[in-house]
Design goal:
Layout: E1 33-34, E2 37-38, H1 39-43, E3 45-48, H2 50-54, H3 76-93, E4 97-101, H4 102-105, H5 112-133, E5 136-141, H6 160-179, E6 184-187, E7 193-194, H7 202-223, E8 228-231, E9 241-242, H8 247-256, E10 263-268, H9 269-274, H10 279-289, E11 292-296, H11 315-327, E12 336-338, H12 349-376, H13 378-386, H14 393-399, H15 405-415, H16 426-434
Parallel strand pairs: 3-4, 3-12, 4-5, 5-6, 6-8, 8-10, 10-11, 11-12
Antiparallel strand pairs: 1-2, 7-9
């Protein structure tokens, strides 16, 4: 049923590449088959609650610009109105999933018990909305960064009462996610880092963060949650240095705390850029380590040095991201979540739809380009051929530890091995990519 927020918009049709209708898909057609699978099942789009329905349009230098009928969202009545509009938007966009933090969806209570009561009430309402619309929960998470109590960290806080409050909050959010059939649970350590080493004990904070994540995994198994536990890497902002800096850093943390087989990563394009990487680098790193879980598809402004959370508009970047995802077998329980927000000057309700339509079309084009690159075979076959000599028994022997340095040195001398450089053909391969994007 229409809430009236989007006025007379009743559906977002697919009209094809020649359409100029801003409220129509040009490339995203959910039932189109790509590499033997429906496009919807490849992309697994999710629409986020926080930037769309909780963010007021503020930035570090200015306050609210958006006028939403559910603001200030300080009552259950307004929280339910917000849910009505949210699920209407999910349905209009044909978005099969959504994501939320607890603080996005419930009124803030006076204490933990009141927060839990409010969350449970809105979860009841969400369960009804999911039943009515067919929209599912990709993942839930807890906001452990906005309030002043988290200014010195959440699990890494020097105050053990904050650690306990965070643990209790995570439990309620995991329980809510499980009840709603969520397919993952995400932990983003927005304050899990430091501003200065002058007041920080790195060893203590690492141990605390490791214990919290072990508690999460223990609770997952206790309640029978079948989804993945995901950590979202981010290098900085708001902290000077955050402990989940990038995918490789997170993997080292997981290994250190015995969690490498229990936890995967949720990779955001914008965070990859802040870490000095590309999105494809972070995804390729995760797939090589076996820890790719899900992705957040939002970009940064390359002229700004902070996390601007813009909708994707660069097809070549997106295509290379999906190229690595498809080579890894595609997204499993994860999906493509738009952790993106309107610009604060985009005031109209329809701007929410237009932004997502454009992002979904860019992802659809990127997915099809990635699939075409794989089916063409030029790129994967080049890489395979480049490393082919490693398949020879003598070279496998080196990798298997069957030769010592002395053995290898003797063989090099006896056989007169004197390798000649081989071209990496980078420009050729870049030109191959340009055939498809």
């Amino acid at each position: 049923m229409s809430t009236g927020f989007f006025r007379d918009i009743t559906e977002i049709p697919f009209e094809g590449a020649d359409s100029t209708n801003p409220l129509a898909f040009r490339h995203y057609s959910p039932n189109e088959v790509v590499m033997g699978k429906r496009m919807e099942d490849h992309l697994r789009f999710a629409t986020c609650y926080w930037h769309n329905f909780a963010w007021p349009g503020s930035d570090p230098f200015g306050g609210q610009t958006f006028d939403r009928p559910w603001f200030p969202a300080d009552s259950m009545e307004l929280a339910k109105l917000k849910a009505d509009v949210a699920f209407e938007m999910f349905t209009l966009l044909k978005s099969p999933y959504y994501c939320f933090h607890d603080a996005d969806v419930r009124p803030e209570g006076a204490n933990f018990a009141e927060n839990t009561k409010n969350l449970n009430e809105i979860v009841d309402y969400f369960a009804q909305k999911q039943e009515e619309t067919g929209v599912k929960l990709l993942w839930g998470t807890a906001n452990l960064f906005s309030q002043v109590k988290f200014m010195s960290g959440a699990s890494t806080n020097p105050d053990p009462d904050v650690f306990a409050f965070c643990a209790a909050t995570i439990k309620t959010c995991m329980d809510a996610t499980h009840r709603l059939g969520g397919e993952n649970y995400v932990l983003w350590g927005g304050r899990e880092g430091y501003e200065t080493l002058l007041n920080t004990d790195l060893a203590k904070e690492d141990a605390q963060m490791g214990r919290m994540l072990n508690l999460v995994v223990e609770h997952k198994h206790k309640i029978g949650f079948k989804g993945e536990i995901l950590v979202e890497p981010k290098p900085q902002e708001p902290s000077k240095h955050q402990y989940d800096y990038d995918t490789a850093t997170v993997y080292g943390f997981l290994k250190r705390h015995g969690l490498e087989n229990e936890v995967k990563v949720n990779i955001e394009q914008g965070h990859a850029i802040l870490a000095g990487h590309s999105f494809e680098h972070e995804i390729a790193t995760a797939t090589s380590l076996g820890i790719l879980g899900s992705i957040d598809m939002n970009r940064n402004d390359y002229q700004s040095g902070w996390d601007t959370d813009q909708f994707p508009n660069n097809v070549p970047e997106v295509a290379l991201a999906y190229y690595h995802i498809l080579q890894d077998g595609g997204l499993k329980t994860g999906g493509t979540n738009f952790d993106a927000k309107l610009r604060r000057q985009s005031l109209d309700a329809e701007d929410l739809l237009i932004a997502h339509i454009g992002g979904m079309d860019v992802c659809a084009r990127g997915l099809k380009a990635a699939a075409a690159m794989i089916e063409d075979g030029t790129l994967p076959n080049f890489v395979k051929d480049r490393y082919a000599d490693w398949d020879k028994p003598v070279n496998q022997s080196m990798l298997a530890g069957k030769e010592s340095l002395d053995d290898i040195a003797a063989r090099v001398e006896a056989q007169g091995i004197n390798p000649k450089p081989r071209s990496g053909k980078q420009e050729y391969l870049e030109n191959v990519v340009n055939r498809f994007v």
